[in-house]
Amino acid sequence: MFNNISKIIERDSKSTTYKYALLRGVIDIIQDNSPYISFVENRVQIPTGLLIEKWLLYYYPIIQSQTLIPQINGKTNLAFSSHLNKLISDYEPRGGFSAFYNDLKNKGIPEDLQGDLVELTKKIRDTITRMPMKYIGRSISNDFYSIFKYENQTLRSCSKIDLETLIVAFGTFSIPFEYYEAFKILGSFINGQDSILFKWAKFSVNASGNNLSVHRVLNEVLKSPITLREIKESKKLYKDILKKEGKVYCVWTGRNISNYDIDHMIPFSAWKNNDLWNLLPSDSRINNQKRDKIPTPEIIERQKNLILNYWEIIFKNQSKRFSKEIQVALLGNHSFDNWKNVGISQLQNRCSYLIENRGFEEWKI
Asked: Domain HNH nuclease: where (predicted)?
């Protein structure tokens, strides 16, 4: 189950933030221990309106922000952007985000805004049920709606919206009981509220007498010592060495190539590793196909001789750096005397771990 959740987070295709918002919303509802949650056989039913409420709370400040925070690849707007922008504009002179939520929960949405809110909530419902609910879990199963099912689609007509109307009038969806149990136990860690990084940042904010913000602390805590400049320098060094060798072969296909990329064999997004042993020449088209995927142990075995050939070239030209880097990253307690066999074996183990335990998508050619 936990492996499935990792695969969904890492492998499911994501062109928008909808899948993140769906998972975050469901987890928050479960963590809230909503009294509207019910159990039918092996599935857990939740009012869709509770999810619509969460999406309103998530996307309102993002869309309102004066800093552009992209939520979709390309320049296309979110399906409900225009509707939400209209609501944000209407509430700006009335007190903004907090005033809107207070009206939704308690005071009631003003009559002149009810029509816009009805259209917005319907648009969010359609977006949720026709997009992320349909496609989430495709990294595990080829079936649509393999995890989330929109159970009750017989909706009550409504001309006015408040929180109670949202809950009773917009149907229900369900998830398997085992996912509910996993989200109940680990949900706050997946969402980040109880993560070590968030707790660290909150501690620092409190210790500063609230003179710092959580996002500022997180920016500092998450800084990586490896910069884009250093990556470029390592790749340039690699290319300079390859120039002396004459012909260059794509490490994944074995074909002679004149134009090539220096590929992170284990993607930088999966492991912040810029070691020379992890940098290999790859056909640009093949590299574009691979992107952030993890090569399988089988493809490493198949291309072992070519990988070792490049390692030997780098070792010959940068022996001190290469030996230090591969010892720390792959060999560990093993002697450097057998670095080739151990290095390949440990590389395969690392890739297998990232695929099977961490949920990263495997890559085959």
From this structure: 258-295
